[in-house]
Amino acid sequence: MSDPQAPQKTINVLTVGMDSRKQAIFRMAFKMHTLHHYRLLDDQPAGPPHLAIFDFDRPDADAAWQDFRREHPTLPTLIVTVEAPAQPPAPVLLKPIRVETLFPRLRQLLTGGEAAPDAPSQLPRPGQAPAPAVDAPAQPAAETRSAAEARPAPPRPMATGTAWPERIEYFDPRQGLLGALLQARRTRTPCVISLAGSKALIVLPELDRAIALVDEHQLQAACLNDASAVSSQPLTAEDTANAEPINLTALTWQVALWSARGRLIAGFPDQAPIRLRHWPNLTRLAPVRDGIRIAAFWSRAPANLRLTVRMLGLPAEDVFSFLAASYSIGILDSSLLKGTDRTGREPAAAAAVATSMPAQQAGAPTPSAAATERTGFLSRLLRKVAGL
Amino acid sequence: MKRLDNKIIFTGPVGAGKTTAIGSISDIPPIKTDAAASDMTLHRKSHTTVALDYGVLNLDGGAKVHLYGTPGQERFDFMWDILSTGGIGLILLLDNSRPNPMKDMQFFMNAFKDFLREAPLVIGVTKTDVKPSPSVKHYAEILARVDQRPPIFEIDGRNREDVKNLVMALLFSIDPGLEG
Ligand SMILES: Nc1nc2c(ncn2[C@@H]2O[C@H](COP(=O)(O)OP(=O)(O)O)[C@@H](O)[C@H]2O)c(=O)[nH]1
Ligand SMILES: [Mg+2]
Known about the structure:
The structure holds two protein chains of two kinds. Chain A is 35% helix and 13% strand. Chain A is built from 14 helices and twelve strands. In chain A, helix 5 (176-187) runs antiparallel to helix 7 and helix 6 (216-224) crosses helix 7 (248-260). The longest helix of chain A has 13 residues, at 99-111. The model of chain A is unreliable at 1-7, 114-160 and 341-368 (pLDDT under 50). Chain B is α/β, with parallel strands linked by helices. Chain B is 31% helix and 22% strand. Chain B has helices at 18-25, 79-83, 101-111, 113-118, 136-145, 160-174, and strands spanning 7-11, 31-34, 51-58, 64-69, 89-95, 121-126, 152-154. The radius of gyration of chain B is 16 Å and the shape is globular. The two termini of chain B are 24 Å apart. Classes of the chains: A alpha/beta, B alpha/beta. At the A-B interface, helix 1, helix 8 and helix 14 of A face helix 5, strand 7 and helix 6 of B. Bound molecules: guanosine-5'-diphosphate and magnesium ion (MG). The site of guanosine-5'-diphosphate has 16 residues of chain B, from helix 1.
């Protein structure tokens, strides 16, 4: 703690004028950064702050700045704002904040180095979807970060979270029972799906209903075998059933989970930004571990798979399963997937942090400092509710 | 000691299941309570109290999370001031069996729009067992058109798991990295 400049020591970061949602962004950014161990002081009020990040987007910013400087006259401070004031009293980082620029800036602050002037023309405008990869170097995420730090890039274990798997298992959602269901949904054609020659499922896409002619275990067994014989014929007048119709979306979600089993959709680019068009109806769908967490993450801003695994600290298998299920019921925002190539350009690390700072919040009055002390409280609430 | 924003608001039309939902997770059976006058803004001072449903979650270390259910729509003009004084978030319950639940959604989101600038929203659609349409997907797509992506689930106010999921979605909307 005595030498804030030494890498690997914890650097206490004081945030000023941020609510817990804004703090959460920095917390997650800090989590994925391993060169220095940054920590929000509000999370663990241990020792003095080493630097501060001051959110200038508040009506009383000037007065708040004066107060802040009275209390911390020499603390190295980075101002974050949508629009830089004419005479900024400290180095400015424009929102939306990108990890590529955030960490170099924090490092400059720590070493007392001159902060290079910002280049606003290169940054997406607030509220605008970040242009994928326009200004990101053509290299994978890990290298991008280290390159920005002007350091060699030794592979490092993550401080928290889980590592990206060394070997990734893939599955093809166009095959088997899932493939037949997706085909029926895409073409909106009522059909009968047969397993090994016997009729198993009537599918009525327009009604979002299906009628199972076999029991659930047989459907699941068909998914366990990637090469199982599945065929599909148009529905005829002879095809009738006594069974209760079930929800086709819920069935598709379940079949996707049975088929994926923690594997990644074949050909899905690990650098593609993922965002949900809307939340899945999680209370009526087969559970995926940490599904609510993943849905929340993918609803706030686009993030690629590597970033998701790293930031949420979840097993990649759970993220892959959730992806397969979301893809299968058609809630992935496919506009983001177009134009992403597989060579791994890197839009999403920036995007997640960038757009998670909603531009419309920038002008809103910033809640009291009390709001910033809430994380421990919210964790306790989470523990309580999860244990009910 | 600064006051924490430690309340969760349940709102929605009469009969949507607010009292029931509070009861299914609260540590005490839901009671009627009068909102504290200190929660009121000055210009509403003539209406010093208003009856709310009340429940509580007791946390480790003695902290409490207050669960408030708003009264009927007709009393609504008194309400939003109380509730705009901060909170963890808003849980909007919509009764799918009412004549125009889509319009209910607009009404409540509009009534709470100031609150929602600073706190997250989750939506629970109840009584889909009574009337399955509109589907939650339909609500979600309408919201997505105006760039709103709140968690929205089918729930039954009597089912604790469902209500738990709403609250967890609220918490992860604040911070997907939150650890319990
Ligand atoms: N059928 C059905 N009844 C429900 C559901 N949720 C709540 N209820 C019932 O609806 C009635 C009204 O609920 P209540 O909690 O008093 O609604 P409030 O006016 O919003 O407080 C109660 O009898 C509940 O048991 C649901 O999803 N389906
Ligand atoms: Mg009630």
